[in-house]
Amino acid sequence: MNEIKTLSIDIETYSDIDLSKCGVYKYTESATFDILLFGYAVNGGEVQVIDLACGDTVPAEIIAALTDETVTKWAFNASFERICLSAWLRRYYPQDFYSYGTPEDTVRNYLAPESWKCAMIWSAYMGLPLSLAGVGAVLGLEEQKLKEGKDLIRYFCVPCKPTKVNGCRTRNLPEHDAEKWSLFKFYNRRDVEVEMSIQKKLSKYPVPNFVWEEYHIDQEINDRGIALDMEMVENAINIDAKSKAELNTAIKKITNLENPNSVIQMKQWLSDHGMKTDTLGKKAVAELLKKAPRPLGDVLSLRQ
């Protein structure tokens, strides 16, 4: 194989975590996370699809290229590929993953973003849509993203509802529908082809280096996350629970209510003591406090 200078990548994955709700980092932390298909092209050449779900393996030179910071990796929404491949390499190729980088590097949890470029960022810079299908349509590419993709992803990439018809399984595997799986592999190949076509179409309008530098900084910030003092967090939770219990006890002592948090019970108690209100919202309580006699005012203040 010729020297690898660029890799264009698209992967299909599975996880029981909802990506749209939790984001890619949490998505890859699930024990069920795995890469099903690995589509790639070396130096803009022919696209290869590695069927990992059916036992295929990624060539050693491609594994090496993923951790080689001199090789530029391309993907559409590249943060997804980078984070997913990081988790996958940590699990299956820990020696390769943890051995790269400079001696000054701390232990990495994710592939360094500096050798990654994102076709979605390029599209955004050009004012194009932020979806692969949208960009392909606007640019009038010969290769277009398959419309069946969403259905295939729903079938293979997320848990399914157990029914008598499907044998009460919670996940669809390649052997459950060979025809769909074959189409899924074609879909994976097509996505890489569309990504490369975008690069070719936009080649006369390169993204300035400072934009890529900003992108890499953004990725590093996301990788690092936000440090939390967990002792302080746990103490804050404990203090909140203690404070709430003390306030509830104080309200119960005045009102004899079974549940001071109950809006219905509290409104009834106030009404029984001559103060009618339709709501106990913050604004309404603030107004009531201006004219509330004791002990009503004390109860409302405690409830606040």
What does this structure look like?
The protein is of the alpha/beta class and 304 residues long. 51% of the residues lie in helices and 10% in strands. It has two domains: 219 residues, Nucleotidyltransferase, domain 5 (2-Layer Sandwich), CATH 3.30.420; 74 residues, no CATH class. It has a five-stranded mixed sheet, with helices on both faces. Helix 1 runs parallel beside helix 3, helix 6 crosses helix 8 and helix 7 crosses helix 8. The longest helix is centred in the C-terminal third of the chain and has 26 residues. The chain starts with 5 loop residues before the first strand and ends with a helix. 27% of the residues are buried.
Q: Strand percentage, roughly?
A: 5-15%
Span between termini: 70 Å
What's the β-strand tally? 5
The average pLDDT score comes to: 92
CATH topology of the largest domain: Nucleotidyltransferase, domain 5
Q: What's the helix-strand series?
A: EHEEHEHHEHHHHHHHHH
Number of helices: 13
Query: At the fourth CATH level, what is the homologous superfamily of the largest domain?
Result: Ribonuclease H-like superfamily/Ribonuclease H
CATH-derived architecture of the largest domain: 2-Layer Sandwich
Q: List low-confidence stretches.
A: 102-106
The domain tally reads 2
Main pleated sheet = 5 strands, mixed
